[in-house]
Amino acid sequence: MKYALKKILLATPGFQVLCRFLTRRHVRVLMYHRFSDDASTQERFVTAKSLKSHLRYIKQHHPIWSPDEQLTALQKKKPWEPSPVVVTVDDGYRDFYEVAYPVFKDFEIKPVLFVTTGFVEHRSLLWWDKLRVIFEKTSLEKLHFSLSGKRIELQIKSDGERNRAWNYVADLCRFIKHEQKENLLRQIAENLAVSPENICDESCQACTWEQIVEMAENGVVIGAHTENHPILSRLDPDRTRNEIVGCKIKLEEKLRTSVDWFCYPQGGPADFTVKTMNIVRQAGFKGSYIAYQALQYDLFTLPRYCVTENKTDFSWCLCGAEFLVLKMRRLIGRPTSVGEQYWRGYRQEEVA
Fold this sequence. Notes:
Layout: H1 3-11, H2 15-22, E1 28-32, E2 34-36, E3 45-47, H3 48-61, H4 67-74, E4 85-91, H5 94-106, E5 112-115, H6 117-122, H7 127-137, E6 142-147, E7 150-155, H8 159-174, H9 178-191, H10 209-217, E8 221-224, H11 237-255, E9 261-263, H12 274-282, E10 287-289, E11 305-306, H13 311-319, H14 321-331
Helix pairs in contact: 1-13, 3-5, 7-8, 7-9, 11-12
């Protein structure tokens, strides 16, 4: 729906109250990624100021649930509170501990932090951050590389060209096998004359294990997000199992308690399969989360809303208007889950 129309509707007296009433049995699961003290040009960063505004809004209008409370409500083992919210954060970046965690403590809200254990253990950058750093560190103005027999050339003279190049390569990386992606990153770094020791950035570091243990002891729910954040649908079953089970074992070893919740890396419809979900079940998780909204789901495909700085989009999702739009789309026979155009590069036949 058009942004201007969203703003008009949200400002209409009674609109948000009506939406919350009509969607009172819809769980709003929020998905955050990165945090900053000040404004950032990167879309997934949310400032401390905006986070405070979000949490204030949530506490005013919504009951706050843990994943376990969502589970018991879905199983009809607890009374259903109207329009509940579950707050989740992916990956385990250090800015969660430094910027967001104090805010959550002040508001007495206990979020879920889905941790990528290899990111924490090995202190290396996640692949999309490596790619960004490579573009930032090079002095060259043109990139040549090959992928699947195709030669690609990109201009990277200006900040705008680097940003477009990053998006182009990142889209390619999202839909290739993990080993291909690692090889591609190495090839790009070599072609741009960026040595491996220069692929580092303090702003993209993970939390330490000590910080994760501290947060868990103070109520943050720790969930699993694989060991190395691969696209699970692009791995063979043994590697998939190692990524999922290995992450769970490492977290439970560090936390000395059970880790019951999982979320799929990237979390789009191309990124996991029925086989993946079966491995998650067999590993002993109670449920798992995806990264988009869908009207049909179960405990291992629980949908979420991605949160950004955009206040209008945040209010639109929280009041339930986005969920109502999906239901109306179903009534008129339009797609209701994230489609191929959104997850660019996805082809059903590629997912085994």
